[in-house]
Amino acid sequence: MTPLHAVGLFMLCWLMPGPRGALAAEPATEPLRVSVNEANGRPFVLYDARSRFRGGLARDIMDHLANQLGRRPVYLNLPRARVESWLRSGKIDAACFLAPEWVRDASKLSWSPVLFHIRQVIVSPPKAPAVTRPQDLFGKRVGTLLNYTYPVLAPYFDDGRILRADAPSFASNMAKLERGRIDALLYDDLASLFAVKDGSLPAAVRIDPLWVPDNPVYCAFSPAFVARAPESCPILQAAVDGGQVERWISAYTGGRRVASRTTDH
């Protein structure tokens, strides 16, 4: 995942003007249309072997919002390439999980408050030495996701000091790690801890934080939806402030989080 730096100007949905009392005038069955792309990965979205949506953190958050708004949640496995245009045009109402720097023009969308932070981590086999600096990865094959950028390691990938091994999914990388085809893999802490909890990774696997700042994660909203439902962001902010979002996360990670490390290298 690309680490976030300074976030540019974008519209927070609780600051957008909206008609007062608009919710009361809408029917209780008004849908809340949410994109839950499979590429978001687990535990953010959960799909079964037949590509049927089964839940995940996106459902926890959006079901809560829909319930508070008196709406009916509808989940769509929309290709990532269509998400932004469908949000701008109002064909869908929300997409989780995104961040302003991951889209082309963040100012044309509305944004939730920061829902949680994810940490980039290096996953190594059990009993592997700690990874605390780039030099610890020199000469090693590191699993990465196809088409993802890793700015902090890019110079080492480019000159071959660290060997980049692309795969289409985290599951593919996990399989290669278990077979010894790679020495470590890059991912985020929530997905890695979820994989440990569900047995996809050994319980003794080593998970070290990468030396970059944590990434804030949001949901993006259609401006048309926020104009009709200005209560959306206060509802989500209350879920963050009251610890509900962290409780949902805890259910997927076994109550664990990986401590951050942001020293310079």
Number of helices: 9
Second-tier CATH architecture of the largest domain? 3-Layer(aba) Sandwich
CATH class of the largest domain: Alpha Beta
Structural class of the helix and strand makeup? alpha/beta
List the uncertain runs: 1-10, 14-27
C-alpha end-to-end distance: 19 Å
> What fold name stands as the CATH topology of the largest domain?
D-Maltodextrin-Binding Protein, domain 2
Order of helices and strands: EHEEEHEHEEEEEHEHEHEEHHH
Q: Number of DSSP strands?
A: 14
Largest sheet: number of strands, sense, barrel closure: 7 strands, mixed
- Which overall shape is indicated by the principal axes computed on the Cα atoms? globular
* CATH homologous superfamily classification of the largest domain: Periplasmic binding protein-like II
Domain module count: 2
Protein topology:
Layout lengths: L10 E2 L9 H4 L5 E5 L10 E2 L5 E3 L1 H13 L2 E5 L3 H10 L4 E5 L11 E2 L4 E3 L1 E5 L16 E5 L8 H5 L4 E5 L2 H9 L5 E5 H9 L8 E4 L5 E7 L1 H6 L3 H10 L2 H10 L12
Parallel strand pairs: 1-7, 2-5, 2-6, 10-11, 10-12
Antiparallel strand pairs: 3-4, 6-14, 7-14, 8-14, 9-12, 9-13
Task: Please provide a written account of the structure.
With 265 residues, this protein is an alpha/beta fold. The chain has 2 domains: 11-116 and 216-253, D-Maltodextrin-Binding Protein, domain 2; 120-209, D-Maltodextrin-Binding Protein, domain 2, CATH 3.40.190. It is built from 9 helices and 14 strands. The chain has helices spanning 22-25, 57-69, 80-89, 154-158, 170-178, 189-197, 223-228, 232-241, 244-253, and strands at 11-12, 31-35, 46-47, 53-55, 72-76, 94-98, 110-111, 116-118, 120-124, 141-145, 163-167, 184-188, 206-209, 215-221. Strands 1, 2, 5, 6, 7, 8 and 14 form a 7-stranded mixed sheet that branches. Helix 4 (154-158) links the parallel strand 10 (141-145) and strand 11 (163-167). The longest helix has 13 residues, at 57-69. It starts with 10 loop residues before the first strand and ends in a 12-residue tail after the last helix. Mean pLDDT is 87; it is low at 1-10 and 14-27.
